[in-house]
Design a protein that fits this description.
Helices cover 60% and strands 6% of the residues. The protein is mainly alpha-helical. The protein has a two-stranded antiparallel ribbon with strand order 1-2.
């Protein structure tokens, strides 16, 4: 868990978050690619418009939950986001979030389940009804209070854990099958 100054505004805390994590100004929204880090190497993904327009919401969720940007932290934030309301009709954020949650289901299942259950008691920054400027002007403490008021009992965490695991595992399975077929052909 990250230690966050609860008196900072969300806008101030997000700037500090971007600086601390070397994400560049505004979280890298002006870059052509976003980079997903895997230990000692990184993989570029296109910085699609839906990601550029909404990455600040995901980053606010790091501040609200106190999770860092390690894979354990990313998978926890992802589980929390799904339980706290998801991404509406924003398909790329859904895919990235489900993939990261699936990684967490694989390597950090207890942490993912805990974060999902916490998310069931909250709204996320997308579903709370506040604009970016309104969110950025709140203190972290006030943002947590505003988002912490809705209980959603209709979401089964195990269903979401299964779906996210499949989204995480299927690309690896396809790659394994492709390699295996190539080996068998030689």
């Amino acid at each position: 868990m990250e230690i966050i100054n609860l008196q900072l505004t969300v806008g101030e805390a997000i700037e500090e978050f971007y600086h601390k994590n070397n994400f560049g100004k505004d979280g890298g929204i002006h870059e052509k690619y976003a980079w997903i880090k895997f230990g000692f190497f990184s993989i570029p993904i296109p910085n699609a418009e839906s990601r550029r327009n909404n990455v600040h919401l995901h980053d606010i969720h790091h501040l609200i939950t106190g999770n860092n940007t390690t894979w354990k932290g990313e998978s926890a934030v992802s589980a929390w986001e799904i339980a706290a309301g998801g991404w509406g009709k924003l398909y790329l954020p859904w895919l990235l979030t489900l993939w990261a949650m699936g990684l967490g289901v694989t390597f950090y299942p207890a942490n993912v389940l805990k974060s999902f259950r916490q998310g069931l008691t909250m709204n996320n920054a997308l579903t709370c009804g506040l604009s970016k400027n309104e969110l950025y002007s709140l203190s972290i403490s006030d943002a947590r209070k505003i988002l912490s008021h809705e209980s959603k009992q209709n979401k089964n965490p195990y269903w979401w854990m299964l779906i996210s695991f499949l989204i995480f595992a299927v690309p690896f399975l396809i790659g394994f099958i492709a390699v295996w077929k190539t080996i068998l052909l030689f």
